[in-house]
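User: Can you predict the 3D structure of Cytochrome c biogenesis ATP-binding export protein CcmA? Sequence below.
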Amino acid sequence: MDLQVFDLAVARGGVPVLEGLNFSLAEGRALVLRGPNGSGKTTLLRTIAGLQPALEGRVEGAGERIAYAAHADGLKTALSVTENLSFWAQVFGKEDISAALQGFDLVDLAHRPAGSLSAGQKRRLGLARLMVTGRPVWVLDEPTVSLDAASVALFAEAVRGHLAAGGAALMATHIDLGLDEAELFDVGPYKAKPRVSAQDEAFL
Ligand SMILES: Nc1ncnc2c1ncn2[C@@H]1O[C@H](COP(=O)(O)OP(=O)(O)OP(=O)(O)O)[C@@H](O)[C@H]1O
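Assistant: Sure. Here are the predicted structure tokens for Cytochrome c biogenesis ATP-binding export protein CcmA:
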């Protein structure tokens, strides 16, 4: 099932930021949102993830098919790496966390409390959670923040594996992930519709 966006308009803080968006994302495909700071990528991803309502239009193939990773890591600091992943696996009705531990090079950190990890290690753990959700559509907001080059490569490999298994990924990122198979989607600035007063209307 494709993720599909039809004539979508999204707003942040009550202010429209993007409109007229149409795209679809098929199984096995990745789509990278590009656009300058403040152009509305986060707002779009939040809307697709169901965290805020659309202003106009609709999204299909989302809902419970989505695993969303945002700027906030959402980790439980007192729990170990293993406990964090097991907790999330349970939430999604899964058990096996070994692929996630290995995929994000967390085996040697397995017993460390999440709160004691470095920024990049925390980010790796946050992204590893995607792998234990079993959800097919990964929606990722700036997934590589704090990651070094080796960790970016691990992340790209995890996305590749997800796509190969029939998953899909929609992400906003300013860096080149080296995912040649990813398509690009440029989000443009919102163009406010001209306001026409009743007086002007008389002349139209
Ligand atoms: N909580 C908020 N309340 C009001 N306006 C907000 C809020 N968060 C963001 N905005 C504004 O909404 C617009 C879109 O922001 P958004 O975070 O979606 O952009 P972005 O493309 O993800 O930016 P970046 O590349 O910097 O992460 C910006 O003008 C921003 O200032």
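The mean pLDDT is 91. The radius of gyration is 19 Å.
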